[in-house]
Design goal:
- The structure holds two protein chains of two kinds.
- In chain A, the strands form two sheets. A two-stranded antiparallel sheet of chain A has the order 1-2. In chain A, strands 3-4 form a two-stranded antiparallel sheet.
- By secondary structure, chain A is of the alpha+beta class.
- In chain A, α1 (5-29) packs antiparallel against α2.
- Chain A has helices at 5-29, 99-131, and strands at residues 45-54, 57-70, 76-79, 91-94.
- In chain B, 64% of the residues lie in helices and 5% in strands.
- Chain B contains five helices and two strands; from the N terminus they run ααβααβα.
- Chain B has helices at 2-5, 7-27, 41-48, 57-65, 84-117; strands at 37-39, 67-69.
- Chain B is elongated.
- The two termini of chain B are 22 Å apart.
- Classes of the chains: A alpha+beta, B mainly alpha.
- At the A-B interface, α1, β1, β2 and α2 of A face α2 and α5 of B.
Chain lengths: 135, 119
């Protein structure tokens, strides 16, 4: 693929954005996963992106997901004595996930993904018509 | 062969290099600290067309030399200087310019084919 580095670049970006979409989905899905112990609570995940050279051309930057970092925010403590998971004092702990912020991030990630699909399609079209040259 | 295609063969190769840079910018629109890059097409074409430039390396050397970091009109806090909308517009324009160069090359090739086959 190194002859056509645009595909590598756009592909790496689509991969990175899809990791981001997955972490957002995971965060939203677990927004209400409470636990009876603050250490067992789900922690919001966030991918960390870094620009990295593609195999064919080191000076051309694709995107790499270096790590998926877990949030260090303290879990939310809620007083729900009737909850089956409540601890001795009647508290349950919910993850510190802000659904509104996650939705905003979701929109941003899907727009970026779409942008890279557009780039991929344009590059494919150009490459195909270059192959058709002189016919 | 490159003499036959004239300026258009070189221009086509350089336009592809510019498309690559713009696609890297779009790909890194969310990468913290990434600086948007662009190709100064005029100076790249001028240095690639220098008579003493080596045939194969001329385009790579010219495109490396003509790269520059494009400042953002709205820099973000994380140091990223990619403007998504602007990058989109430039990519669309660059794709069109690539097509234009390709049409010129193609008409040259067609002309040569007509001359060879005589039909």
């Amino acid at each position: 693929m190194s002859n056509l580095p645009i595909f590598d670049v756009a592909g790496s970006a689509m991969n990175a954005q899809s990791v981001r979409l997955s972490t957002i989905a995971s965060n939203l899905a677990n927004a209400d996963s409470v636990a009876g112990n603050p250490d067992e609570v789900y922690r919001a995940k966030q991918p960390v992106f870094r620009a990295e050279g593609v195999p064919g051309d080191a000076s051309l930057a694709g995107v790499n997901v270096v790590e998926v970092r877990e949030s260090t925010d303290a879990p939310l403590k809620r007083y729900e004595p009737g909850h089956p998971l409540a601890d001795a004092q009647g508290y349950v702990y919910a993850p510190a996930v802000d659904p509104v912020a996650q939705m905003v991030d979701l929109i941003s990630a899907s727009r970026s993904y779409q942008a890279n699909v557009e780039v991929f399609n344009s590059a494919k079209e150009l490459a195909l018509s270059t192959l058709q040259m002189g016919r | 062969m490159s003499d036959f295609l004239g300026i258009h063969g070189t221009a086509l190769a350089l336009r592809e290099q510019r498309l690559q840079l713009l696609s890297a910018n779009l790909a890194n629109a969310d990468t913290p600290g990434f600086k948007a890059q662009d190709l100064d097409f005029t100076s790249a074409l001028q240095s690639a067309l220098q008579p003493n430039a080596a045939a194969g390396d001329a385009i790579d050397a010219a495109s490396q030399g003509a790269r520059y970091q494009r400042p953002s009109s709205q820099p973000s806090v994380d140091g990223n200087t990619v403007d998504g909308e602007r990058e989109h517009a430039l990519f669309a324009q660059a794709a069109l310019e690539y097509r234009a160069s390709m049409t010129f090359v193609e008409s040259k090739v067609r002309g040569m084919l007509t001359a060879i086959t005589g039909q």
